[in-house]
């Protein structure tokens, strides 16, 4: 029987957004939505599978910035407060729809979901969900990959290896802070690859990484197995290629099953429809409208807003059908690939942003659990962790992946274009200055060391591609600009203060309390390798 396997990988990332002096900001709700609709439902699915003895394998890359937010007591408290307000709002919605029994049933489902989230988050996980993910990793169900400290588009800094070193080393520090396993794989943010990264990644002892499909298909020469088997770089680093076609079967807005008419319309949220007075108990509309989680319509067809009430039974049936069809296509494609490769082991890699499951696609976690349960009953395909498939890379032959990323255009257009190119001279200048500071002050302690660590922290925050991507969006560009400029400005304050030999303790303490991530950071990581 052919050795066929499916690798599922989720990129769990959010930009670091924390505003102690501005409760209720709309940007902070991104974390709360991720917890409510992706991470808590995923943990419930994993718990259910383990309890019933259903084998499952899943790879995840938790960005250090997300880990720091999930473990932050302030954000944990604010999340609970948002759940309490949502429960009260849901009760008010029941009264508002007293004459519409179909909508009332949906509101009850949403309320049950919120109350379950509150119980799980506060009572079961004691406000920190990371230890439960670590538990599943220790049980062999989950493989947690290391990644950069912030979501940095590495190819744009490949000529400054000190930056990539600092990103990786800080990421490893935070990984060890929250997870007990030793990471064997490395997640490239946005799967952004260019020549030279293999040497840096391998130097930290990582065994494998991932690239987009055309990174293999345009390689010179392309791997004989294409995207259906990992390949090896000249230094021994194993590289998997994502099966883009398999992934877009779910994610394509035009043809992806996540956008079928039976599923919940995630764009029809009452937070964007009700007037300010009705939303006042939930949040201050003046701070920006946001997702409430109360949605009542199916997606429908034709692109126009659908007035049909969401049918839970129809959606559940569609989940089962779509899961079965997805598996059958994977079995067919893998079987054909195995035959063409004379029985060699074959693998399909499906990698997604974690937020796709639960936030873009409300039924996504249910679909994923259904796929796990279905494959567990089959003998012609299995789920696998990437570390288990890395040894299946064929011997002989070397792959040199082509420059690539998982963005729709396949390259760097999203992070380097006319809307954000003004940012690069500032961040690259700050990067070179940070390297200079690390060289000039290699052994400093006390207040000066605190300031240097703060400079390194703000530089890493400024390097995250999130601000560059948000500049492409009209409703997020102003916030992204402000956050980027704040980080560059804070770095510059430290740089100039060290030049004048005076550092404001008051300013430093205040900035440390606001951007409190990576307290273990060591600015010396920006030093040039001797």
Which homologous superfamily in CATH is the superfamily of the largest domain?
A: Glycoside hydrolase 38, N terminal domain
Largest sheet: 6 strands, parallel
Kindly state the mean pLDDT as a whole number?
95
Oligomer: single chain
- Uncertain segments of ≥5 residues (pLDDT<50)? none
CATH architect. name of the largest domain: Alpha-Beta Barrel
The CATH class of the largest domain is Alpha Beta
Helical stretch count?
A: 18
How many structurally independent domains?
Answer: 2
- Structure classification: alpha/beta
- The radius of gyration is 24 Å
How many β-strands, per DSSP?
Answer: 9
Indicate the CATH topology of the largest domain: 7-stranded beta/alpha barrel
Principal-axis shape:
globular
Helix content: 40-55%
The share of residues in extended strands comes to 5-15%
The sequence of SSEs as H and E is EHEHHHHEHEHEHEEHHHEHEHHHHHH
- State the distance separating the first and last CA atoms: 52 Å
């Amino acid at each position: 029987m052919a050795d066929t396997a499916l690798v599922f990988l989720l990129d769990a990332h959010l930009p670091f957004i924390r505003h102690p002096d501005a409760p209720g900001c709309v940007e902070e709700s991104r974390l709360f939505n991720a917890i409510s609709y992706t991470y808590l439902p995923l943990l419930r699915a994993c718990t259910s599978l383990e309890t019933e003895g259903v084998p499952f394998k899943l790879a995840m890359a938790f960005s250090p910035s997300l880990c720091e937010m999930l473990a932050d007591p302030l954000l944990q408290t604010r999340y609970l407060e948002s759940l309490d307000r949502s429960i009260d709002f849901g009760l008010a919605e029941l009264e508002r729809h007293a004459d519409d029994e179909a909508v009332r049933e949906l509101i009850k489902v949403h309320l049950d979901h919120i109350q379950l989230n509150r119980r799980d988050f506060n009572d079961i996980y004691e406000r920190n969900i990371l230890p439960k993910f670590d538990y599943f990793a220790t049980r062999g169900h989950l493989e947690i990959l290391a990644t950069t400290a912030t979501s940095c588009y590495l190819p744009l800094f490949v000529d400054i290896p000190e930056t990539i070193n600092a990103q990786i080393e800080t990421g490893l520090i935070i990984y060890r802070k929250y997870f007990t396993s030793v990471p064997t794989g490395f997640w490239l943010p946005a799967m952004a690859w260019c020549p030279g990264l293999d040497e840096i990644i391998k130097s930290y002892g990582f065994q494998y990484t991932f690239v987009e499909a055309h990174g293999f298909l345009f390689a010179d020469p392309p791997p004989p197995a294409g995207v259906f088997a990992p390949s090896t770089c000249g230094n021994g680093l194993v590289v998997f290629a994502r099966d883009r076609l398999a992934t877009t079967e779910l994610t394509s807005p035009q043809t992806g099953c996540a956008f079928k008419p039976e599923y919940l319309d995630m764009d029809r949220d009452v937070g964007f429809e009700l007037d300010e007075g009705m939303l006042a108990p939930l949040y201050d509309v003046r701070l920006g409208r946001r997702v409430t989680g109360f949605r009542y319509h199916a997606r429908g067809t034709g692109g126009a807003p659908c007035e049909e009430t969401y049918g839970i039974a129809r959606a559940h049936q569609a989940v089962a059908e779509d899961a079965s069809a997805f598996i059958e296509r994977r079995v067919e494609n893998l079987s054909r690939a195995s035959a063409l490769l004379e029985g060699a082991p074959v693998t399909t890699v499906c990698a997604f942003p974690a937020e796709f499951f639960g936030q873009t696609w409300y039924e996504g976690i249910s679909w994923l659990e259904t796929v796990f349960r279905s494959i567990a009953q089959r003998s012609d395909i299995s789920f696998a962790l990437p570390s288990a498939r890395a040894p299946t890379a064929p011997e002989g032959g070397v792959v040199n992946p082509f420059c690539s990323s998982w963005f729709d255009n396949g390259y760097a257009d999203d992070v380097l274009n006319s809307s954000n190119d003004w940012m690069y001279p500032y961040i690259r200048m700050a990067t070179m200055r940070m390297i200079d500071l690390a060289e000039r002050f290699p052994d400093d302690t006390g207040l000066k060391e605190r300031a240097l660590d703060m400079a390194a922290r703000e530089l890493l925050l400024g390097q995250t591609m999130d601000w560059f991507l948000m500049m492409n969006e009209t409703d997020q560009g102003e916030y992204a600009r402000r956050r980027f400029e704040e980080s560059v400005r804070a770095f510059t304050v430290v740089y100039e203060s060290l030049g004048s030999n005076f550092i404001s303790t008051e300013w430093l303490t205040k900035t440390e309390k606001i951007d409190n991530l990576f307290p273990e950071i060591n600015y010396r990581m920006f030093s040039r390798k001797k």
